[in-house]
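Lab notes, practical 5.
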Amino acid sequence: TNFTPAQMDRWHVLYDLAPEAAIDATNGFYFSHLTDSVQEGDYIKFAIDVKNIFTVDMDSLLINYWIEDQNNVKHTIAYPRQDSLRVGQVIRDTISVPSLGMSGFNTLWMEVNPYINGSLYLKDQPEQYHFNNIMQIPFNVKSDKINPLLDVTFDGRHILNGDIVNPNAEIVITLKDENPFLLMNEDADTTKFGIYLTDPLGNMKRIPFVDGQGNTVMQWIPAESTHKKFKILYPAAFQLDGKYRLMVQGTDKSGNLSGDNQYKVDFEVINRSSITNMMNYPNPFSTSTRFVFTLTGSEVPDDIIIQIMTVSGRVVREMTEDQLGKIYIGRNITEYAWDGRDEFGDQLANGVYLYTVKAKINGEDIEHRESGADKYFKKSFGKMYLMR
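Output from the prediction step:
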């Protein structure tokens, strides 16, 4: 009636002993970057013992891991419930967590048999103490701020603004990122590129990797640890003659742009095969001279011969396409440099020499293309000066 307790002679309590688990570092622990900062994209790895230190078995054990970033945002790490922890037994697993997007100072947390549903007293299963069930390790992640390197080639060559290119050129785009932990090797990485083409009519469109019918337009080759280059292959087919513009921009997995300004180049396509007069450079020369010319169309000559002769018409040297080196659509300067020697390897005398060029594709003469070099030729003969 007065809300007072009865005065008992004695209490008799029946109870079961509660188990006790603890984080145990007596055998050491593993943290992959304990003394050094983590490069963004690298994996953070951690392992430590969880031991049953009492005389009662524990049920299947729940362990929570999470990372608290520099903005105090909690990032839960998935970790499955473990088997029962029996007397004297130890659980030790290595967890691995990517550091992408966690630049700055962070903290790795671990809680064994955690409090549940926001409670400050109700744990996942009964246990004697909790102070030895929780730990934290601070670590720093160095952000990836280095821009990747973008490279664009046409048929394996870097072109200049205004260059003539093959209508069927293979355009290769590569993006190299120095971060070995953030290799661009997934389908999703294709979204990190913007590739635009403007045709001679002024129409600009974005080039897709796959068109609306599911056909592959551009192929991609994943980056590997050895070269770190993500490669795009675009087999172009420019049907219209005229001037085009290609614009390319890319980003790495950290969002760093390939440059403050996108790659942009203007080029010209001429489907008809033609060739300019070949100029030798330098002219006059003393040690060697090469031949410079421009080629249009989609095929390179399969038969070229350069004849060098005296002013009296005697041929002293002939060079063929096998000697000149690789020939490209567009501007060319031969790999081969003539050293002023005749067919027998003897040095020619100083003076003026004439030369003429014959070029054929499939047995047909190639149409002559007018250029500024024409004024230096008379009836298809050029003039060179050897001065030692």
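Observations recorded by the TA: The mean pLDDT is 93. The first helix runs from residue 321 to 324.
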